[in-house]
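ENTRY TYPE: paired fold submission
RECORD: A
CONTENT: sequence, then structure tokens
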Amino acid sequence: MSEKTLLKNLIEWIIAIAAAFLLFLFMRNYVFRIADVSGSSMEPTLSHGDHVILSQLGYWFNEPQTGDIIAFPFRDNPSEFFIKRIIAVPGDVVDFQNNRFVVNGRELNFGFANVDIISRGDKDLPIIILEDEYFVLGDNRNSSKDSRYSVVGSVHKDEMIGRVFIRFWPLNRFGAVDAES
């Protein structure tokens, strides 16, 4: 092989590797992201140690919906995420009655909805969810720091990292994470 052919092959390899790396960075930063579930706040839907894939692309085209499980950063440590379920969208009214959360006058019907809740949090309820904000709760309502606490509060759409859509670890629980689980 001539020196010119070798140089041409080397340049092609460098371009291919650089393109693959740029595609990986684009996918990692704008399309998909991996997150680890820490704690029991989303049980039984997600458990401590589960690894999930977040879709970052979905909310470019659609608005977040009630039932979506989302990830958003801790305010004190943005490199770590909360993973919670949206229970109320802009314009909804959230209240706490008879040890249960109520949205627009209806009791929640997903997650650990049928369990009496020990703490209503420190937020004054009822509240109306503002534009581009979302009220989130853990499915395990008695073991979750979420929107009912001032330290978390409502989640602004711009804070959402993505919607959880696949659990890939552990393998025996591999599969889509249903928004209405």
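RECORD: B
CONTENT: sequence, then structure tokens
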Amino acid sequence: MKKRDPYISQIAYSAISKTKRRETKGQIVAVCSQSIDKRGLSLILQPTRVLCKSEIHELITTDEVDAGPNKTVNRIAAVCFFEITQGSSVAVGDPVFINGKEIGKLAGFDETHCPNHYNIVVLSAKRFTGLEAGFHIGDKVNIGTGHENSMT
């Protein structure tokens, strides 16, 4: 029996907007300082991922307005690595917050370093590194709803 990816067949898209999910929470474990103009990140087709408690993933910003599932992203800035303290399901379009301030919307996922970690790409009005933004180890990361004060 062949596996059917529900995103290829479009089955899953109608369910995403109707799914109620709790917020994903985490905290920064490493602050990054690298910007690259020609990174070539290949965002996967799937617009959702489950992030489990105790996993560590990388947050990356881009200012490429067409960044999204199944696209290549070149202009990136590494923000941080963060540990999940409350797992959940996340989806493209979810707001991403650090210390309660929105840094952008989730644009997609790159699996270059899997199974070690995902590159979680965030579309922001301006790409920036964690060092440029003044983030620190222990700062709070939230993905989902429930915060105000936009940086975008």
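NOTES ON RECORD B: The chain is about 5% helix and 40% strand. The chain has one domain: 23-143.
STATUS: closed
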